[in-house]
Amino acid sequence: MAIRQVRETLEKLLALQHQVERDGERLYDGWKDDITRETFHTSARNLAHYMALRRNELSTLQWASMGRLEARVLPTLQAVAASCAHIVGDEDMQFDYPLREDFVLGEQLLDDNAEQTLGPEPEKRYTRIMVTMPTEAARDPSIIDGLVEQGMEIARINCSHDDESVWLAMIEQVRQAERTHNRTCRVSMEIPGPKIRIDRLLTTQRKARVLRGDRIFLTGNKGMFLPAGISTAIRCTIPEIIDYLAEGEPVIIDDGHIECVVAERMDDGVILSVTRVVRERGILLRPEKGINFPGLDYRVPLLSHRDEQILDFICKNADVIGCSFVRDREDIALLREEINKRLPAPDSMPIIIKIETLDSMRVLPEILVAAASHVPTAVMIARGDLAVEVGYERLSEYQEEILWICEAAHVPVIWATQVAETMVQTGIPTRAEVSDITLAAKSECIMLNKGEHINEAVLLVGDILTKFEKHVYKKTAILRKLSIASEMFDD
Fold first, then answer.
1. Coil vs helix vs strand at 46
2. Interacting residues of 298 by C-beta distance below 8 A, sequence separation 6+
3. Taking a C-beta distance cutoff of 8 angstroms, is the pair 131, 152 a contact?
4. Exposed e or buried b for every residue in 48-57, given b needs 16+ CB within 10 A?
5. In the chain, where the domains are located
6. Other CB atoms closer than 10 Å to residue 484's CB: what's the count?
């Protein structure tokens, strides 16, 4: 690159640095008074600088190694500016390089926050493995014992299912497995939050199999019935939402496996017309499957009465608390308030925030500041509901944005939903699933769901992560020696 081009780049960098400092500090000033975790001031300031930076089109400047700047925005800009000034050779344009401590601080804070929230970093890999506990794990000690032995670092208990007696048995199994294998395994308990689910179903069929073109009656009433010409009715867990549904409104069931539209309103509910199913032979409806209403402007309270009841148990027994469908900083304030009522010391329990709506994506920096400025925090990318909300064609774009913004805030990320799903169910992974695992290596944790072959899946995922993480950290390729290149040269 010619000296003139370097000088032009330097001028652009200096203007960019000034704008990022000015706008970032203004954003940080609006956050700093509410921050109670002293270590989060550095993270909040860097996140503010990152959001100010990403207001700009940066592709023409990216030659200057800015691809690895999420965790250290200003030190990177300073280092590039100092390098350009050195190349130009103008004594009036010399700049100091950032301190090494400032340059590595971001990664250190991210690692520290990941350890506080998700537990110690595994010995041979960077990314931890979380597994959702099946009900059988409460009765069969070998399930959790085998998972801890194979490499599970976090046992996730989804409190949408089972009850306190089952959860306590699972936790006792985890603690025993920790002692047996001398390994740390954290217990994450997830509050259901305002996810709308199928509460009950009624059908004239042996099984409620849904095909394209079928009609389903959706109601919120306890007294269920089948309207004339309808073979399947479902009741949802939040009845009042039925009143907000108009004809033509899209309704998505089972994480996008069934797509419908409201065809007709009735006094006791609505008739749904099934427009698409993912399998030609149909999809079976079951209680507890999720129902989404994309675009519907209706705010469900974050915590139900049942959520508040189970929080008593969770705060006594969990290592980290997860919450579904957090939408904004007001939800974070409510969540912290309810948790802190039940803790001996305020903000002493780490939290996991599930990001699964477009609304929460739009205010993600505000959510991170509201949470991580007070309590160790992780973010879970709930790709099932998020895909329903934003569309499958945009899911990859949004999950990358979540990773970038969270890294800028030094907040660890959990990559979730259908990771190695075929492997978990059948014991044989698809090629696409192996590639998905390597993408997930950019996160601090991968979540696997329950299934018959979960032990083999944990072993496979751990092995892939151990090998792949030697080649990539976050979004940066690590230039290790290539075996192919070695073969081209004589010793």
1. helix
2. 241, 244
3. yes
4. bbbbbbbeee
5. 3-98, 112-194+301-477, 198-292
6. 7
Length of the chain equals 491
pLDDT tens string, the chain, 491 residues long: the values are 466 767 777 888 889 899 999 999 999 999 999 999 999 999 999 999 989 988 887 766 654 445 567 888 888 888 888 888 887 776 666 678 888 788 789 989 999 999 999 999 998 899 999 999 999 999 999 999 999 999 999 999 999 888 999 999 999 999 999 999 999 999 999 998 888 889 899 999 888 899 999 999 999 988 889 999 899 999 998 888 898 899 999 999 988 899 999 999 998 999 999 999 988 899 999 988 889 888 787 778 889 888 999 999 999 999 999 998 898 999 999 999 999 999 999 999 999 999 988 889 889 999 999 999 999 999 999 888 888 878 888 888 899 899 999 999 999 999 998 888 899 999 999 999 998 888 888 899 999 999 899 999 999 999 999 888 777 776 665 555 555 445 544 54
User: pTM here?
Assistant: 0.85
User: What's domain 112-194+301-477's architecture?
Assistant: Alpha-Beta Barrel (3.20)
Amino acid at 29: D
- The string of DSSP codes covering 178-201 is HHHHT---EEEEEE--S--BEEEE
Contact 291, 196 (CB under 8 A): yes
**Which two tokens mark 91?**
């004594």
373 Cβ neighbours under 8 A, 6+ residues apart: 31, 34, 35, 36, 37, 40, 44
DSSP string, 300-322: --SS-HHHHHHHHHHHHH-SEEE
In angstroms, the CA 446 to CA 413 distance is: 9
CATH number of 198-292: 2.40.33.10, 1.10.274.10, 1.20.120.140, 3.90.550.10? 2.40.33.10
Best CA proximity match to 319, nearest among 134, 189, 129, 176: 189
Question: In angstroms, how far is CA 76 from the centroid of its own chain?
Answer: 27
Question: CB–CB of 261/273 below 8 Å?
Answer: yes
- Taking the C-alpha atoms of residue 238 and residue 344, their distance in angstroms, rounded to an integer, is 33
Angstrom distance (rounded) from CA 423 to CA 212: 28
Q: What does each C-alpha distance from 479 to 209, 321, 476 come to in angstroms?
A: 51, 38, 9
Q: Give the amino acid at 291.
A: I
State the sign of the Cα–Cα–Cα–Cα dihedral 437, 440, 443, 445. negative
